[in-house]
């Protein structure tokens, strides 16, 4: 049986005061990922934090965050986060710019860097009042047992 890690306490506990936004409980298969758990925590934490912040800015609209984590075949994990976002998001190419400071958002930049570092992709878009974040990760274990080379990933101190 696969070792399952309940990430509820690790990732969602800090967001418990945002439960009206519909944050779900979810599981990850730690032994199937070649990505260190700390990066998964940063990735999901950034996606959820951005979604919660967007919901807090919405007035008189549905404030539900939709999180889906799906395995695609035997080699990919798809993470999708959708949230309401009526305020137009400004993009620089395919990256959303921060609403808090000049330039790219630190959270979305980290998400993209983690995905790319481990052979995946991250895409962001806004359509019809909804912001969509999609992350595809390679879950085939690295047979060398070595971590991917360091990149510019923003990790908590």
Automatic annotation (TrEMBL):
Gene3D superfamilies: Histidine kinase-like ATPase, C-terminal domain (3.30.565.10). InterPro entries: HATPase_C_sf, NatK-like_C. The chain crosses the membrane at residues 6-28. It comes from the Bacteria. Residues 40-137 form the Sensor histidine kinase NatK-like C-terminal domain. The keyword Transmembrane applies. GO terms for molecular function: kinase activity. Pfam families: HATPase_c_5. Keywords: Kinase, Membrane, Transferase, Transmembrane, Transmembrane helix. This is Sensor histidine kinase.
């Amino acid at each position: 049986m696969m070792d399952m890690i309940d990430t509820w306490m690790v990732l969602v506990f800090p967001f418990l005061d945002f439960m009206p936004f519909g944050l779900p409980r979810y599981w990850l298969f730690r032994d199937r990922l070649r990505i260190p758990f700390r990066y998964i925590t940063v990735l999901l934490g950034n996606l959820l934090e951005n979604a919660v912040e967007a919901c807090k800015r919405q007035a008189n609209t549905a404030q539900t965050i939709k999180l889906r984590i799906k395995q695609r075949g035997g080699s990919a994990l798809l993470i999708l986060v959708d949230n309401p976002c009526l305020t137009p998001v400004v993009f620089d190419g395919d990256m959303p710019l921060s609403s808090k400071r000049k330039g790219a958002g630190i959270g979305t930049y980290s998400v993209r860097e983690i995905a790319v570092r481990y052979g995946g992709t991250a895409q962001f878009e806004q359509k019809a009042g909804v912001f969509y974040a999609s992350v595809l990760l390679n879950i085939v274990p690295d047979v060398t047992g070595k971590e991917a080379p360091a990149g510019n990933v923003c990790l908590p101190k």
